[in-house]
Specification:
Strand content: under 5%
Order of helices and strands: HH
Radius of gyration: 20 Å
Shape: rod-shaped
Largest sheet: none
Structural class: mainly alpha
Number of strands: 0
Length: 49
């Protein structure tokens, strides 16, 4: 008799998809940031001042 998991806990599923969305979002953000140039408003924004 083998121990098999037929269903994952709902919290595990939520965390899995949350991490997946964050990873895809980080790739999208990185791709967007590479396209910025010096004259872009977002490039020159400094949130610390």
């Amino acid at each position: 008799m083998a121990n098999t998991i037929k269903h994952y806990h709902p919290l595990s599923r939520i965390l899995h998809w949350l991490v997946a969305v964050v990873v895809v979002g980080m790739f999208a953000l990185g791709y967007w940031m590479v396209g910025l140039n010096y004259y872009s408003e977002w490039y020159r924004t400094d949130p610390h001042h």
